[in-house]
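Per your request, structure below.
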């Protein structure tokens, strides 16, 4: 897993790379990453799922839409990776 160059549990990077993973593996990594990001206090992160068939994008966004640690998300703009990236706004402690 590539995490913006960080591999420690207590220091997640601003990006999670899920391309070419199975759905099950990607969802496991996403859940773990969101927990780490929330605990680290990061407010905005990027999830790189790629464009491909759109399956990873769909399941990532379905998961984010009801996740208690997520305030919102949007598709990346051209300079952020476009449809291959989802930019996530994390919830703040006490906001949900």
């Amino acid at each position: 897993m590539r995490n913006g160059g960080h591999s420690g549990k207590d220091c997640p990077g601003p990006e999670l790379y899920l391309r070419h993973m199975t759905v099950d593996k990607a969802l496991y990594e996403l859940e773990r990453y969101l927990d780490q990001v929330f605990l680290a206090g990061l407010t905005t992160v990027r999830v790189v799922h790629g464009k491909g068939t759109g399956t990873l994008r769909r399941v990532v966004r379905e998961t984010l839409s009801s996740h208690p640690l997520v305030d919102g998300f949007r598709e990346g703009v051209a300079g952020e990776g476009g449809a291959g990236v989802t930019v996530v706004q994390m919830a703040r402690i006490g906001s949900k």
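Strands lie at 15-17, 44-48, 70-75, 85-90.

Regards,
D.
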